[in-house]
Amino acid sequence: MVRVQWRGQPVWVLHRSPDMLERLAGQTSPLKDPESAKSIQPEYARNATRALRPEYLVVIGNCTHLGCAPLERFEVAPADLGPDWVGGFFCPCHGSKFDLAARVKDDGSPAPTNLTVPPYRFVGDELIIVGEDTTGASA
C-alpha cells in the first residue's frame, strides 16, 4: 500500500491482488452502506469495488467515526477479528471495521459511513493524480 498526502490528509492507494478481489466479491458480512449511497466518493467510484479500476483502491485514510487512522488488516480470519474477517481495515480507536473496498461493516462499527474516496484519475498505467477527477478538472 502506498501512502501520500492530499490537502493535509493521508491518502492510501492499495493495489488489490486477484485474491483480494475474489475475497471482496465473496463478502458476506452485512455492510452499513453497501451501495455507497451515503458515503463520499466521486460518481465513478460508486460501485462494488469503489474504484475506477477494480485492482486499485484510493481512499482517505481517516476513519469516518472520529478521524483516527485505521490499520491495514489484510489477513483472513485473525483471532482478534474473528472467523468471518476476509481482510480490510480496522480502526483500533473504537473498533470500526471496513472491507477491502473500504465499506464499513454493520457489526457494531461506530463509523457511520464508508471511508472517503477522493477525486482521482489515472495518467497511464502507473501514475494516479489525486485531486483531479477523470475529466482532469481540479477538485
- Which structural category do the helix and sheet elements fall into? mainly beta
Strands, count: 8
- Any idea what the radius of gyration is? 14 Å
Percentage of β-strand residues:
15-25%
Order of helices and strands: EEHEEEEEE
Oligomer kind: single chain
Overall 3D form? globular
Q: List unreliable stretches of 5+ residues.
A: none
**Helix run count:** 1
Q: Widest sheet: strand order?
A: 1-2-3
Report the helical percentage. Answer: under 10%
Mean pLDDT: 92
What is the makeup of the main sheet?
A: 3 strands, antiparallel
How far do the termini sit from each other?
23 Å
Write the topology of this structure.
Elements: E1 2-6, E2 9-15, H1 18-25, E3 56-60, E4 71-73, E5 88-90, E6 97-98, E7 120-123, E8 127-130
Antiparallel strand pairs: 1-2, 2-3, 4-5, 5-6, 7-8
Explain what the structure shows:
The protein is mainly beta. Helices cover 6% and strands 24% of the residues. The protein has one helix and eight strands, in the order ββαββββββ. The chain has a three-stranded antiparallel beta sheet with strand order 1-2-3, with no helix packed on it. Strands 4-5-6 form a three-stranded antiparallel beta sheet, with no helix packed on it. Strands 7-8 form a two-stranded antiparallel ribbon. It is globular and about 40 Å long. It starts with a strand and ends in a 9-residue tail after the last strand.
